[in-house]
Amino acid sequence: MTVSPAAFEFIRRHVREHSAIVLDDTKLYLVELRLQPLLAEARLKTIDELAVAVRDDPRGPLARKVVESICTNETSFFRDPGTFEALRRTILPQLVASRASQRQLRIWCAACSSGQEPYSVAMTLVEHFPELASWRVEILATDLSTSMIERSRAGVFSQFEVGRGLPAISLVKHFEQSGSEWRIRESLRRMVQFRTLNLSQAFGVTPGFDLVLLRNVLIYFDLEARTRVLQQVREVLSPAGFLFLGAAENMLGLDVGLEHLLPERTACYRRQLKPAA
Prior knowledge:
alpha/beta; Chemotaxis Receptor Methyltransferase Cher, domain 1; 2 domains; 7-stranded mixed beta sheet; 11 helices
């Protein structure tokens, strides 16, 4: 498929404006690949025609689907085991101890894709911190994509998906088989609240999160967007709240009032009590 330079430029400007995702010149193949199914759905023949349709209705459903189609939705249960080991051994015990008087814990999984991360967090809480059963525990999971939020909320996963990172004992304990698929048990599904949220805009969430997981998404943003997002994250963290980035992400060159914790290979940060000068 041939995409004109003008159409590619329009698509990447549109995607950046509505998601902060940066598409450089090497991502032309990605645009062609990701938008192909949308062409069939919209009964269009070329991406040039798609660009014209989006230009004519920049806030319509087709324009939104273009952005959602470009988003990367790679995820798995207990992705990056070091992160979940740090949560289980270090971060969550600290939070449980420090929040014992309030008996409340608030967690946000941003850019949750199809839901494996928030459900992995919920399983970690249930399996390793039974005392939280009597607490008020909030797990908020958000994503830009409405289709991903719908999938996450349904809590239904394929055999391939549950085979990626999910221990067999957790599968038996927290899932029910339905034909060739596996459904999260209702008790676990009720622990997570799902909603759409665009990180490139004002978050619109109530501050006071004890833990935020914002993993493997900032790598698609430029420096300005990363700074803006992390500044907002700091503002919604509770005092001394924790943030996890993806294993390949860091805050080098960013001064956003968050300090690095744990070994260098674990991208864990804590809100500084005083903003960085």
